[in-house]
Structures are given as C-alpha cells and as structure tokens.
C-alpha cells in the first residue's frame, strides 16, 4: 500500500477538511454583496424620491409589457404606486359594457378615436395624483405616440423605454423624444426591471440635479391645470391655449 504523502486521504465524495468552511465563507460573501447591493439600491431610490417632491413618473415606449416592468420596478424603488394605463382602460371598457355604456355612440367615430378619448381621459385623471409610476400603452399608437397629446404628461418625469435596433423612422419616435429620460433595452429579450430601474434612477437623479427647480415647476404645471404651456409656464389668465383643445 502506498502511503499518501499529500495530506490525509478522504473517502470518495467526502470534502477535505476546511472545504465546508470555505464554501460557507464564499456563500456568506455573496450574500453580503447582494445585501449591500440591495441596500445601495434602496438608498438610491429614497434619495431620488426625495428629490422628486412627489412628482410622478410616466413610462412610454412601443412595448407595453416593457413599460409595465420598468414602471413596477421603479415603483418599488421609489415607494410609489404602480399604475397600468392598459389595465385601467380594459377595466373601464369592461365596466362600461356591463352597464350598457359606450364611449361614443356616433358611428362616424372610429374605434381608434374612441380609444384615444379614453386614453387621454385616463392620463388627465392620473395627472392630478402624486407619487405614481405610470405604465402607458404601447404599440406605437395612441396618446403617447402623438406629441399633441402630451398635455397631461408634462407634469410628470417622462421615461422612454427604447429598444435596440428599433426603426428610427417610426413616426411615434418624434413624440417619445419629448421624454426627459431614455433607457435602451435589448429587443426581443425580457426586460430586466431592476437593471432598467438603475439606469432610469441615475437619469432622473442627473436630471433634477441639473435643474433644482424642475420638480417644483412640474408641480406648478399640474396646479395650473396641465394647460399645455410646458415648459414656459404663463401666469393664470395669461395663457391663450386650452387643455381641453387637445386632440381626441
């Protein structure tokens, strides 16, 4: 029998002395790193939330599912309430059908126009609330895809979830360009909400640091009734426009 000279011999499959302790230490280090990362993210969310002064965040983009994922991740980090416009519209239409009501009984009004009326109405109502993370409709159409329908969005911080390789000539991109923060995600891949939220929070942080009057101005815009005079707010009574004139 040959004696082993490189240390004690262990039964096959049994760990060498100290291996368990090394694994535990490694596992503990990973757990500690995750805990520190979570704490850092929580602190970042709290810091940005304080700077926002209650101003809501609206997420736009062609992919409604991506908008929802990002809005929900942001809501957790900011301690805001998540709201899905598509879900809100679906609930409204279902309730209207149960009650025998329709948006407009005029046969000359297209279904798209009726949907736009409902969507604008939802944005109008949500504009009056504080501390929301709103996921808007996607599909490259609807209110957020039309710059002349952003009247109710300017009171919030707007975030565009764009996709790599998206068609640069798509007309709705002109409206999305009105957004204040843009995050690019991989096309055809499930969105990592946490990673996207990290980027968005960094963008919002830089935005409000660059203009410490921004959030106060947005709150004032909402108090004035979201009249459409963003970013050059006019005193009450001096603005000739009318929010009600927004396309429907």
Describe the structure.
The structure is a single chain. The protein is of the alpha/beta class and 248 residues long. It has one domain: P-loop containing nucleotide triphosphate hydrolases (Rossmann fold, 3-Layer(aba) Sandwich), CATH 3.40.50. It contains seven helices and five strands, in the order αβαβααββαβαα. The chain has a five-stranded parallel beta sheet. Helix 1 (19-52) crosses helix 2 (64-78). The protein is globular.
Supply the key terms:
10% strand, disordered C terminus, 248 residues, Rossmann fold, five-stranded parallel beta sheet, alpha/beta, disordered N terminus
Helix content: 40-55%
Q: Averaging pLDDT over every residue, what do you get?
A: 84
Q: What is the CATH C level class, in words?
A: Alpha Beta
Largest beta-sheet characterization:
5 strands, parallel
Kindly estimate the percentage of residues that lie in beta strands according to DSSP: 5-15%
Strand order of the largest sheet: 2-3-1-4-5
SSE-based structural type: alpha/beta
How many distinct helices? 7
Q: What pattern of helices and strands is seen along the backbone?
A: HEHEHHEEHEHH
Number of domains: 1
Unreliable residue runs: 1-14, 243-248
N-C termini distance: 92 Å
Number of E-type strands: 5
